[in-house]
Design brief:
A two-stranded antiparallel sheet has the order 1-2. The chain is mainly α. The protein has one domain. It is elongated.
């Protein structure tokens, strides 16, 4: 990311928090699959993509870190669904798996993404 937007957010801290809290924000998955997601989110970069930081940066540049966090979470959800299918042969219904955008964990992610 360019220097002009990097000071508006803290990518490393956000990504660490995303890997820790992201699995708990997914709705529409059973416990066993949730465990697979949690293990892989905290021990690999299986659900990472370049677009994640771009989503966060865009929201931050637009003055809404929360918007950037929610956008990054949506892309992360897509990455999870793609990776489960590609790596484990687990196909989940994209319409049923969503992010709980009312969870207090969203505020924790926004705090983690905040600069400083």
């Amino acid at each position: 990311m360019g220097k002009s937007t990097q000071h508006l957010y803290n990518w490393p801290r956000f990504y660490e928090a995303l890997c820790r809290h992201g699995p708990n924000l997914l709705v529409g998955i059973d416990e066993g699959i949730g465990e697979i997601i949690e293990i892989n989110a905290t021990s690999t970069d299986m659900f990472w993509s370049e677009g994640l930081e771009a989503c966060l940066a865009e929201g931050a540049a637009g003055g809404s870190l929360q918007s950037g966090v929610l956008s990054a979470l949506e892309l992360w959800r897509e990455n999870v669904l793609d990776a489960l299918d590609a790596n484990f042969g687990i196909e989940l219904d994209w319409e049923l798996v969503c992010i709980d955008d009312t969870s207090p964990l969203i505020d924790q992610l926004v705090e983690a993404a905040s600069p400083g």
